[in-house]
Amino acid sequence: MDTLTFPRYSLDDIISYLRSHILTGAEARNLVKADVFGNPKHEVLHMIYMRILQKVYGIRLERFYMMPVNVDIMYPQIFEGFLPVCNLYIHMERLLPVCRVNDFQIADVLNPKTKRTARFLSGIINFVNFREHRRAVYLELQLNYTLAMEKRQQLETANQEAAAKLEKLNTVPVEHQAEVKQLTESIRELEQVLRQDYRRKQTALQEVISQKKSDIAERTRKLNELKVLMAALKEEQEQLKSKIVESPEELKNYKELMKENVKKLKKSKREIIEKYEAYRDLVEVLPSCQLEVQLYQKKMERQRANVERLASVLSEVRNLEDQLESAQIELKKGKTDEMSLKRLVTAKQEKLSTAEIRIKKKREDVEQYKQAVFEYCNRVQEKRGAVYDKVTAIHKEIQQTRFKIQQLKENAEKEEMKAKEIYLNLKAGLEKHHDSLIKTAESYAASREDKIAELKKWLLRVQTPGSSS
């Protein structure tokens, strides 16, 4: 056994392990190295093997001293000293192949050797450590399996509750269906009314605006015509200036008169400027007229006529300005009406938008809740899949463990059959030995009788010659 499937422990490690894990009480305290190795004590080694079998298979101590009830033995008192050793060998021969030791013999129980005993104990310690480790793993796996089954049941109940809640959310209650239907119909009617009202007022306002624009365009056209007329009058005045030639005295008098007229015109000009600041372009004609009046020396009457014509033009301009102001006022009123209509429309649109926002928010909340429920269901499904994978793995391990247990049972049955064969062989050998002992006793008795008869004959022969002499 040079190559082993388990580590070889030292003698001190084996003794310390036996003291701490196998033996208890006085047995552990009184155990020394010389009791097992070197010059071992058979009863100590047998006691260690029995404790190991008790720990691994749970075999009680009295079973080592019990005769099998299914075997018919003629003289059971012959087996009283050999029965514990035989039972110990049978159980150890069943245990050690599991520990990967396949060369255990009965001589290792009756006459143990140090090296072989150390190797057997090393294999047993390695198997016991492996068994404890796997037992802890199996217990933890069993606990995890029960916890996983409980968690799976909880997740299934939670999944069913979530599905019921989701179905409840998707279906509108009967008592609220009529209200929801009425709300949607009223919202649609309100939208339709608002759109019709807005379109009607918009078309009316556009018609008013177009009418006002056409009036303003007509008035601006008339103003342009008056400006063209004033330009023609200016040209006519310039043409007349070139034709006028007068004396210096008349010119002087005319200048004084014109100065007074200019003062009056300036005064009137100031009044016109104060009243009509918005139309300074038209009023600026007066300074040009004043300059023209200074240059004119003659034709005062014609100039007055021009001034009167200018006044009529200015009155016309005033009338046009008044009309323009009234048109602007009407336009402002139309704009205010338009603004009020727009405000009303915007207010109604805001109400409609707030209602739509509320409905949209409710829908989004419902969608978010649905999404959260779906995500929770997906997480539950993923956890359920993971738990199912774990459960399948545990089932596989359980099946493997059952298969191993079945193999162990089959091996145990095989070992039991071997033990029965050994027992039967031993029984047959003992019966043969018993028969041979009986035969030897009978032959010994027969030979003894023959020897006694021969001795008697010899004594008689010896006595007869003496008597004759």
- What are the secondary-structure elements, in order, as H or E? HHHHHHHHHHH
Sheet of most strands: none
**Mean pLDDT, rounded to whole units?**
76
Oligomer: single chain
Fraction in helix: over 70%
Give the number of domains: 2
Distance between the first and last residues' Cα: 82 Å
Q: β content, as a range?
A: under 5%
* Backbone structural class: mainly alpha
Low-confidence stretches: none
- The 3D shape can be described as rod-shaped
* Total number of strands: 0
Rg on CA atoms, Å: 68 Å
| Count of alpha and pi helical runs | 11
Structure description:
There is one protein chain. The protein has 469 residues and is mainly alpha-helical. The chain has two domains: 171 residues, Ncd80 complex, Nuf2 subunit (Actin-binding Protein, T-fimbrin, domain 1, Orthogonal Bundle), CATH 1.10.418.60; 205 residues, no CATH class. 83% of the residues lie in helices and 0% in strands. The protein contains eleven helices and no strands. The protein is rod-shaped and about 235 Å long.
